[in-house]
């Protein structure tokens, strides 16, 4: 049996590669002669750079940047073997970078993300993939643009500060001093969300509360993004207000499109393209995917839906393993997942499930999955033997 493992990381617990290694251990406990390959995958959020580098080859580059709270931190990006760069904004402007008690969404900036883009161009990269999941920000990407030379002034001619709380002050945008290399650089935004910039489904309303925004702040931030879109359209003749995916990462998706000419793509699709998924899927008899939790959202733009959409073209059955199965998990059957297993199948403290036992739990889930598949294979072979009138020998 030839098995391809293509799982997302289990956030806060296991990396994509660690998940794959433990799934492999569970498989070999049932099918010791199985041929196994794996690719590390992600959807543009935390872990995307590691997943792409481990799956496609390349190197990591470390660089200091400004964090979302204005403090300096050590960050990184990847350079692939073809010379293109892979960035995850979470490594510069991500929510986990700021302690919960210190988070201030009104001031959180994407300036560090702009610094990562500049560092990639400094290293000669003329094609840059940027994952935009896991943000702490809601500034429409103005911080990113400021790091690359853009100017945002109020009606008194003064430069506005950092953060989404400053957006409503913007009266004039000047991009004449932005890094000229942007004109020659292809930038691809990797996003797992399709939200517009503003409104009930926009960046502020949907994701603002997750980043600590109060109801009052959500209103102010949404008004700020709407105002930014208006000034961008007046100045740059680019309409990002209703652009699909513009609301990703607190409007960074729209900001990248407006200020750098970036195009927005599905994060998982971009990663699968870089990982040569098509050839590996054609080779496989079974694909095992997964993520930390499978729920109703897993069918929309996440790793599992991306894998299912691609693998369906080759007629390869797909199974899924998750840390937990939540309400709506059965929706993934509709997108092509044949069966699924939860790693946590008995009551236990969260710290235990996500800590030292996490790998063991994933391996156990993989073994249960493969034993179920083996039973099905035995039944199939029995039916074939009965049809042919030959002795029925159990699979060993």
Automatic annotation (TrEMBL):
InterPro entries: Glyc_kinase_flavodox-like_fold, Glycerate_kinase, Glycerate_kinase_RE-like, Glycerate_kinase_sf. The keyword Kinase applies. Keywords: Kinase, Transferase. It is an enzyme of class 2 (transferase). SUPFAM superfamilies: Glycerate kinase I. One of its GO terms (molecular function) is glycerate kinase activity. The keyword Kinase applies. Belongs to the glycerate kinase type-1 family. This is Glycerate kinase. It comes from Kineothrix sedimenti.
